[in-house]
Amino acid sequence: MAVGLQSSGKTTFAAALWYLLDSGEIPTSLRKGKHTGDHSYLEMLAKRWEEGWQVPRTKTLQQEIITMNLKDPATSTDVALQFVDLSGETFERAFATRILGRNAAAAFEGARNLMLFVSANDVRDDLTMIDVAMQLQDNTNEELVSDDRSEEAKFDPAKAPRQVQVVDFLESIRQPPMSVSLDRLVVIISAWDKRPDHNEPDRWLIERMPLLDQYLRNSGLMVRIYGVSAQGGDLPDLENPPAKDDVAGHLDQKSLLSLAKASKRIQVVGYGAAEHDLTHPVRWLGGLEGE
Ligand SMILES: Nc1nc2c(ncn2[C@@H]2O[C@H](COP(=O)(O)OP(=O)(O)O)[C@@H](O)[C@H]2O)c(=O)[nH]1
Ligand SMILES: [Mg+2]
């Protein structure tokens, strides 16, 4: 199962993966498996991706469940990958109330392996009061520090730091009553084109999400951390395109569209994965590659 908060890069990954498998432009470690039924949604996503636009935002009400079937040509093993959005009311409420509906819980029944999405493009949302105080000291502004405590904000679970929500989610599904027995977990750091000036996904996790990093180290799970740029760079939103004279919004779109094979926009970093092979982490998750 592929999980992550909203805007962590899941749908873009799904779109790029579908395009990659469908086009066969470059060799991948897994191939497209059997798909029955209607996969027009995935095809729409892949087309949007190919044409150089952001994938459409998942509407909370008509939550599309994406399932992708892959096949390992070497062993003929099938691997199914299902994408679940952890944001939205269901999970936000669960975080605060400790109550998760039966349907949402059932989706994780029997799950053994998780692909967890976080984004390198997110601004920090977990500054502590000490961090803030240190910044204030540097440019003391009397007005800012003055004690305007008249308005106390109400606790909003959706505003808890992302890594707190993610760790709570992982721990909660592993504890009773859900007791999901996890085995392998892949962290996908999406938008890896926005990475800092080093190219080490595991170092990024230590520096940017230390709580999640520590949790995973002590979780007893087999863990891998990949950096993935499924989009290759910044792309405009078709439903909300930038103004004609806003060149910045088009910069990456132009250079990405100029690649003869769209699959080559994809970048994957870690564990000897071939440069554009999005299926590499999926193959390991499926248990088709060593520990
Ligand atoms: N720069 C960059 N942005 C990305 C990449 N992948 C996704 N994004 C952007 O991140 C945002 C969230 O992506 P999306 O796939 O919709 O996340 P989801 O809500 O988890 O499905 C969108 O604005 C995407 O355009 C990437 O590889 N590079
Ligand atoms: Mg989505």
Can you tell me about this structure?
The structure is a single chain. The chain is α/β, with parallel strands linked by helices. The chain has a single domain (about 1-285), classed as Rossmann fold. Helices cover about 35% and strands about 15% of the residues. It has helices spanning about 10-25, 40-50, 90-95, 100-105, 130-140, 140-145, 160-175, 200-210, 210-215, 250-255, 280-285; strands spanning about 1-5, 30, 65-70, 75-85, 115-120, 185-190, 220-230, 265-270. Strands 2-3-4-1-5-6-7-8 form an eight-stranded mixed β-sheet, with helices on both faces. A hairpin with a 4-residue loop joins strand 3 and strand 4 (about 75-85). The chain is globular. The two termini are about 20 Å apart. The mean pLDDT is about 90. It binds guanosine-5'-diphosphate and magnesium ion.
Secondary structure: elements and pairs:
Blueprint: E1 2-4, H1 10-23, E2 31-32, H2 40-50, E3 66-72, E4 77-85, H3 89-97, H4 102-106, E5 113-119, H5 129-138, H6 142-145, H7 162-174, E6 184-190, H8 201-208, H9 210-217, E7 222-229, H10 251-257, E8 267-269, H11 279-285
Parallel strand pairs: 1-4, 1-5, 5-6, 6-7
Antiparallel strand pairs: 2-3, 3-4, 7-8
Helix pairs in contact: 1-2, 7-9, 8-9
